[in-house]
């Protein structure tokens, strides 16, 4: 009936609001409260895990939106300064700067953060796109969507 998916997004929304307001995050207690209010909200392990992964990504990356008039200044700062990587948590920047011995700029640090978060897909996960009956659907046979989540 869609309650599991709805509960998942409600939980994510509540927990992101907590992060934004500096409050502690407790996904287990929030999920229990939602399920107590209505049976079936956050209905399986995949949805529960999705909540954790989403909150983790939000905390690690933070929103990356920027106003158009600030864009040129940000590009200039990120080109020369690792600390200007606006979407990366300050602690992560600090650790990465120490590890890189200050040789990386903001773009490199932000891209390193992105590649650490986004998992590479194996050929097996994209097998359906490589079948003969599906190859014509893709512009590039080597770029295929993930088989399942």
TrEMBL record:
Give the source's domain of life in one word: Eukaryota
Domain Tyrosine specific protein phosphatases: where? 1-49
Family matches, as Pfam families: Y_phosphatase
Q: Which GO terms describe its molecular function?
A: protein tyrosine phosphatase activity
- Where is the Tyrosine-protein phosphatase domain positioned along the sequence? 1-58
Q: Which InterPro entries match?
A: Prot-tyrosine_phosphatase-like, Protein-Tyr_Phosphatase, PTP_cat, Tyr_Pase_dom
Q: Indicate what this protein is called per its UniProt record.
A: Tyrosine-protein phosphatase domain-containing protein
